[in-house]
Each structure stands twice: as C-alpha cells, then as structure tokens.
Protein: Glycine betaine/L-proline ABC transporter ATP-binding protein
Organism: Methanoculleus receptaculi
Amino acid sequence: MSQEESIIVEQVTEEETAPVEPIIRVRNLTRVFGDEPEKAIELYRAGRSKQEIFEETGSTVALIDISFEVARAEIFVLMGLSGSGKSTLLRCINRIIEPTSGEVWIDGKEIVRMGEEELREIRRRKLGMIFQNFALLPHRTVLENIAFGLEIQGVPLEERHRKAREMLQLVGLGGYEDSMPDELSGGMKQRVGLARALTSDPDILLMDEAFSALDPLIRREMQDELLDLHQRLGKTIIFVTHDLDEALKLGDRIALMKDGVIVQIGTPEEILTSPENEYVERFVADVDLTRVLTAGDVMRRAEPVAQWTAGPRVALHLMEEHDISCIFVVSRQRQLRGRVTLDDAVEAVRKGKRLDDILIIDVPKVTPTTSLSDIISLVVKNPYPVAVVDDAGRLLGSVSRGAVLAALARKGEDTNATA
Ligand SMILES: Nc1ncnc2c1ncn2[C@@H]1O[C@H](COP(=O)(O)OP(=O)(O)OP(=O)(O)O)[C@@H](O)[C@H]1O
C-alpha cells in the first residue's frame, strides 16, 4: 500500500440532504419562429436539418421538446454555441417569447396558458432579468434606474429609493446613487443591472450572457460577486453563457444545448468526466481539469481508528496494521490538532515519548472546494497527505499526492508535468 495514505481519528458523518422541490419545471417546450410551425416540426421529426427546414418553410425550429427542472436556489447554466437556442429558452421562461407548445411551471403555476394579469404578477414577484447590454435608462441616475421597476409598480418615492439604496450597497456600489450610467464602467453598469433585478426580491434571476461584454478580469470579479450574492440570498439562477469556463465555475448543473435541444444535463464534473456523446466530449476537450476538480472530489474521508488519548505504541500499531504513513489527530469537536507520522511514532516508541510529544501541529490544510491546481504544489512539497477541513477547522478528510496524481491520470492529464 501507498506510503502516502492516511487514516484519521474521528468518524465524519455525511449530512443528510433532503430532496428539494423544483421551482421551475419545463415540459416539452418547443418554439418555432416563422409562419409554418406545424410543418417545420413535422419536417424536424422526419429528420430534416434546421437549414433544410428554413429553406422549405421559412421557419426556424429554435427549441424542440425541451424538458428539465431547476431546484430552488440552484444555479442552472444554459450553455451552447451561438444559435443553439439558449436565449430563446430563457425568454420562454418569462414568456418574453411565447412558446409554440409545451409547459413552463414556476413554483407550481403553469405560465404558458396564464392570463396577462397573472403573468405580470408572476414576472414582478418571482422573476428578475439581467441582460448582456445592461439595458439601463441613459437619462436617469443610478438610483432611479434601480428604483425604476418599483416606480412602475407604483411604490412611493421614499420607499423605492430606500430599497434601491439597500440594493446598491448589496452590490458594492454605495455612493454612486447620483451617477449617470455613462459615467460607469461595464462592471459597474452590470452591478446596477443586478441591483435593479434584485429590488423586487424575485425568487428567480434570469441572466442572459450577463458578463459576456466585460473584460476578462472584471468578468471573473463579477462571477465571484454573483456566487457570493447567491450564497447570501439563495436565489435560483438560470444563467445563459456560451463560455464553458464560466459555466463550469457558476453552474450547480449545466444544460449543454445544440440546435434547439439539450444534449446533456449534469453537474460540471459529470459533463467533464462522463460526456454522453461525442459532441459534449469535443465541447469539453480543452478544459483544464485541475481547475475543475476540487479537494472534495479526491479526498479520503476521515475514519475513526482510535481514541486520540491512545499512546504512540497504539498509533504505530494502527499505521502498520493499515499500512499507512500518518494519522490525523482531532479533538472531541473534530478540530484538527495535528498529525503523527510513522517515523515519529517509531521514534517515540523507542524513546518512550507520549503522543503529544510527537504531534506535528503545522499541518497543511485545504477546504473541500480548493481546486486541484491549488493543491498540486502543496502535495508535491509534502510527503504526507494534506488535511481537508471545513470553515470551522474541523477535519473532513485528507488528500494525498497519490490521489491527486491518480485523479489527473484518470482524466487523461499529463501527470508527469505536474509531479
Ligand atoms: N426573432 C427571431 N426570429 C427568427 N429566428 C430567430 C429569432 N430569434 C432567434 N431565432 C433563431 O432561433 C435560433 C436560436 O436562437 P437563440 O438566440 O435562442 O440562440 P442562442 O443560443 O441564444 O445564440 P446567441 O448566443 O447567438 O444569442 C437561431 O437559429 C436564431 O436564428
């Protein structure tokens, strides 16, 4: 067995996860642009290409038989090349575009057949939309832009400005109330867009290529900001992008679209490691997996092997029995106290020392979300496994050099380059 493996002194129980009721259900959604939808669909079912259908009918099959569900507080990414149908699908969810057929359920209400009044109410209360081009009103101040939705709803001036100021703080733009849109950078404009969408406290945010117009650095900053806001506010987000890196970073799940259909829905890991067909495979071929896989994906879970009050002789015996090179020692609250290596245990037994004397306190730690690329230098420098701890410093497991390299090798990475 490997000299790099470890066992740990305390049991870690997995938290139970209750099934979450989907907030959005889309059933057999189809949208055809043009005057002959039935004929276009018939041709599609007969196996004709989009182009052939367009040439024959003048109609475009933009979406065909789309079905999926989005869980409450999930970030669901619609990804695909230009023309694959992402924006049309997003806009069918709030009926900015009318579906040709199919159903869209939002929080238990079917909206495709809903009357205008009820639809307006759902849009106002449940749905916020954020566009790529910001869509700010040029002659209004930042504050007035943010408060605009509330103004339309007839909310009194004082209250809407109070709410708008609150949202402005939330997106990190406090102090810019009186600025005009053309005085703001792209990133700031999109923060205003976010704040505006959040004023009515919608459960769902629909974001259409919201960060695509931003410089790469600002774009990454906004992605982080969105993840942070998502963590704090727990909104459900449907995020459209053609950028795979962005999809992988933001998405709890990703739906990859091609020519109006969803070719695969899965977590970023599933999309990367188990592509369902050649198209997905080609789409993800260039992704650097070290940025995608995390410590949580490759860690060995903590298992109890002994009371930590056990002496070095017990520690040594355990390491020999399990053929491992070190054990982690935790307190009763699973707080990581340190690490005991095989060499130190041998030495302690010889010299009659206590476990405390041989405990190495300065153990490298990472969290389950640390990417493998950030761990590689740590595990390369360290002969012993790195501890994986939660935010409170409790031990969850360990990551060894062997586990990292094996994960990379399994995914076809050149492990020699990183070792
Ligand atoms: N208003 C429209 N009239 C006619 N065809 C349309 C219309 N809107 C979209 N389409 C067509 O529907 C298909 C899907 O377009 P859609 O804009 O949803 O794709 P997309 O994946 O969002 O692409 P992009 O990233 O370029 O916006 C395309 O073939 C497009 O040409």
